[in-house]
Design a protein that fits this description.
The complex is a heterodimer of chains A (about 220) and B (about 60).
Chain A (H helix, E strand, L loop, with lengths): L4 H31 L13 H4 L2 H23 L3 H20 L6 H21 L5 H6 L1 H18 L11 H20 L7 H20 L8
Helix pairs in contact in A: 1-3, 1-4, 1-5, 4-5, 5-7, 7-8, 8-9
Chain B lengths: L1 H16 L3 H5 L7 H26 L1
């Protein structure tokens, strides 16, 4: 694909419609979790919005949106419906593993997998599942950060905070992405174009981390 | 206070109908409407940052 206005517009539309499909399917699992599966958890988080919306209406709206936009997506961009089914199946499997896990601490691993399935959804729909090894390498640091974040989040729900520090996520992003970068370059060389996003995240996170450090309250210990 | 109540009612109504509505609505217990929208937009940008170069290379 050469970089011109038409290709940029095509890629943007492809992603935009893809995000509508993904968001609709993803939100069905959110609703199922908040309305049904939350009652099975050992340390549940009840959300007030669920009492203010009609659950069946919300799910039906998302099913309709996802079907209509999948049809448009596949028709307009000549995507394989089989690839979309594979992506939906992977997302559903990951979501159900997550939703059916009633022990909060075990949800650390299922959540990270669920997020990874979300990230792979659009590339699987567009390219099929066989060309995603490169993307898995690119997503390694993101997967690690999800584990760090959700581990800390779930421990907080139990009233446990280990380590007893306030995690600065800008620093964590910059550090984790930088740690993985040499390995990723070696694995992907010479096709290092997909790492542009990772490098951008390191630069932005590093700049944000320096700004946060300046504002930091001296009384709080941070990592 | 009343404005906030009305704004939340609007968000809940939109949440039933529009994609991303539920994602925003479920964050309202711990953050404001604007922050919830920004949070999800940031997530989407972060995802796109990884996906766009990969798709560009393969399309």
């Amino acid at each position: 694909m050469t970089l011109n206005l038409k290709s940029v517009l095509t890629l943007t539309t492809l992603l935009f419609v893809g995000y509508i499909v993904l968001t609709c399917i993803y939100e069905i699992f959110y609703i199922l979790n908040d309305a049904v599966f939350v009652y099975r958890e050992d340390s549940p988080t009840f959300r007030t919005y669920i009492n203010n919306v009609s659950v069946p209406k919300t799910i039906i709206a998302r099913l309709l949106y996802s079907m209509v936009f999948t049809y448009l997506w596949c028709t307009y961009f000549s995507l394989s419906l089989l690839n979309v089914f594979v992506a939906v199946a992977i997302l559903t499997l990951a979501a159900m593993f997550h939703n059916l896990q009633s022990i909060k601490l075990k949800r650390v691993y299922t959540f990270a997998t669920f997020r990874l399935a979300r990230w792979l959804f659009i590339p699987i729909c567009i390219l099929g599942p066989s060309r995603l090894l490169i993307l898995l390498v690119v997503l390694l640091p993101y997967f690690a950060i999800q584990l760090i974040w959700i581990h800390s989040y779930e421990l907080n729900k139990y009233g446990i905070q280990i380590p007893k520090v306030k995690i600065r996520y800008a620093y964590v992003y910059a550090y984790v992405y930088a740690v993985f970068l040499p390995l990723q370059v070696v694995l992907l060389y010479p096709n290092i174009l997909p790492l542009i996003g990772n490098i951008a995240i390191i630069i932005v996170s590093f700049a944000k981390s320096i700004l946060e450090k300046r504002k930091r309250n001296t009384g709080v210990v941070s990592t | 206070m009343r404005c906030l109540f009305i704004a939340r009612k609007i968000v809940y109504t939109l949440a039933e109908l529009l994609p991303l509505g539920v994602s925003v609505a479920r964050e309202l217990d711990r953050t404001s409407i604007i922050d919830a929208i920004l949070l999800h937009l940031t997530k989407i940008i972060l995802e796109a940052t990884h996906i766009i170069p990969f798709l560009y290379m393969h399309l």
